[in-house]
TrEMBL record:
Residues 9-315 form the Porin domain. It holds the Pfam family Porin_4. This is Porin domain-containing protein. Keywords: Signal. It comes from the Bacteria. Residues 1-22 form the signal peptide. InterPro entries: Gram_neg_porin_domain, Porin_dom_sf. It comes from Thalassospira tepidiphila.
């Protein structure tokens, strides 16, 4: 597929709107987060990953409003620690009555618009940090392609409904400006958020195509009083994001379900996740055991978050998992663990 200048009309509209000298110049503001965790875990296969973990990003953002009311801005996310890509996301956006256009390295529309079960602890069961502590298949009901250089469009919110679409011309261009041999990535989503008589409802349908395969999924949340209940389901075709020489397997199905309860400064959550995976392709476990294969995994996470002050939260998780694989080297790996730490937002 040839590169298509989807954003040309929006850019022309901005250029033709008049000079921007009367608007305020863009000034960058600084934000971000820092998370520091300490935990202990026990598992049957491989060495337990009893360790400290951390995740830190510094965000730079700025915007200006042109004379015609159109907002133009930029966002840059700097990784606090990494062995590869120092810049996480970097994109500009154009926001107006037509919706929002983004150009640059960013998550796909499907990734941004998908709803999953509530989870407030540092581990979680769905695309969380479980594999930072144990060797297990990572459940993910919204397994999008991550940060890629792409075009994304979000429609205006109309009666609670919003549409999104993303296009990346080359999945290999994530860390290489000259890559030309990756797959086109098409991503789309629709979600709804509304409130009726004190009940908050959310629904999402998302999907993505990469290579010869697709993934697609559904998510829903219901909030009432201090409770939030949610669930999501995702299906990954065996050839999604697989190159010509990649190993083949079976499709993957996953789901999660959970509930959270907020009381003053504290919120607790209980979440369960399950996946029947068909193409687990991981090089090795913490002690060099090959983990590739098919199987099924279940995970439970009890999470807690307590606001200590503005931008300061103490979070903890107690988790359990059971991963049954057809790989004779590991067969059945199960275990449990506990993680606690401080999360800062600024």
């Amino acid at each position: 597929m040839k590169k298509i200048l989807f954003a040309s009309s929006a850019l022309v509209a901005v250029a033709a709107a008049g000079t921007a000298q009367a608007s305020e110049p863009i000034k960058l503001s600084v934000g971000g987060y820092m998370e520091q965790w300490a935990g202990v875990a026990d598992q049957d296969v491989g060495e337990s990953k009893n360790a400290f973990q951390s995740d830190t990003e510094v965000h730079f953002s700025g915007k200006t409003t042109l004379d015609n009311g159109i907002e133009v801005g930029a966002k840059i996310e700097l990784e606090g620690e990494t062995s590869s890509d120092q810049i996480d996301e970097q994109y500009l956006y154009i926001n107006g009555g037509f919706g929002e256009v983004r150009l640059g390295k960013d998550d796909s529309a499907a990734d941004s618009m998908g709803f999953t079960a509530p989870s407030v602890g540092p581990v979680g069961v769905n695309d969380g940090d479980l594999t930072n502590w144990v060797d297990a298949y990572l459940i993910d009901t919204v397994p999008s392609s991550g940060d890629q250089k792409r075009f994304t469009y979000y429609s205006p919110n109309i009666s609670g409904f919003q549409l999104g679409f993303s296009y990346a011309d080359d999945s290999g261009s994530n860390n290489n400006d000259t890559a030309t041999d990756g797959d086109n990535i098409l991503s789309a989503g629709i979600n709804y958020q509304g409130e009726f008589d004190g009940i908050a409802l959310g629904f999402s349908a998302t999907g993505e195509n990469q290579g010869e395969g697709n993934w697609y999924g559904l998510g829903a949340t219901v909030g009432f009083g201090n409770f939030v209940v949610g669930t999501s389901w995702g299906h990954i075709e065996d050839d999604y994001a697989q190159g010509e020489n990649s190993r083949t397997g079976d499709d993957t199905d996953a789901f999660d379900v959970g509930v959270s309860y907020a009381m003053d400064a504290a919120t607790v959550s209980l979440t369960y996740g399950y996946a029947e995976y068909g193409n687990r392709d991981i090089d090795s476990s913490s002690d060099g055991v090959d983990l590739s294969g098919t199987g099924e995994v279940s995970t439970v996470d009890l999470g807690m978050s307590y606001a200590l002050g503005a931008g300061v939260a103490w979070k903890s998780s107690i988790f359990w998992f059971d991963d049954e694989s057809d790989n004779a080297a590991i067969a059945d790996n199960d275990g449990y663990g506990a993680v606690t730490g401080i999360a800062l937002t600024f």
